[in-house]
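Open question from group meeting: does this chain pack into something compact, or does most of it stay loose? Before anyone orders reagents, we agreed to write out a predicted structure and look at it together. Recording both the input and the output here so the notebook holds the full record.
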Amino acid sequence: LPVEVLQALAAFDQAPISATEKLTLFLMYHRFRADSEFRPYVCMLPRNYSSPIFWDDRTLFAHGTRSDLATRTNAAKLSLVQQYNRLLPLLFSRARTLFDPAVHTLPVFLWAAQTVKSRNWFVNRQRPPFVQYAMLPLGDMINHRPHEKGGGRTSEDGARFELRSGSDYAAGDEVFISYGNHCNLYLLLTYGFEVEGNDVNCTRRGGPATEKPP
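Structure tokens returned:
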């Protein structure tokens, strides 16, 4: 992010800006800059997602107005709207040449936030620059297959992020990773898809049968 944005965020007097919020602002900023060095990556990202947060009420409530899916989706939407209202007015006032309310709208924020949620990698880099989450071009295009072994991790020397397969592949085969042993509700909310025959139960204490929300 530009220095002006970082300075504005550093002066933020509310809750600290999280790593995923910074990535969200990063995508919002670079999406509309024709001269961005990250433009090739931003241009290859999906423009639309199938996560329930983008469904209209008719589609969402077809599952029941009080269903766990509707409850969690509405909670997720509310949280994102609150994040937008907390962060963007600050940037509109303190970095007005970089963030424009006519361009960096709530729908753009929702797109960027969903991109980060569904495509970021936990890297936990233990040497400068210290990084906890990162966007990995091409690496974030690998599809999910249940019970697939292997995945991504920071190298032992902390200098790079590595993708390792737990399966043998022939030339031309599609490579898969596992996004985790999650139930369909979690997969739908986070990634926008469900897995047929998924036998992972969604459970939480003291409420409907659901997994911890993303």
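Observations to bring back to the group:
Residues 68-94 form the longest helix (27 residues).
The radius of gyration is 19 Å.
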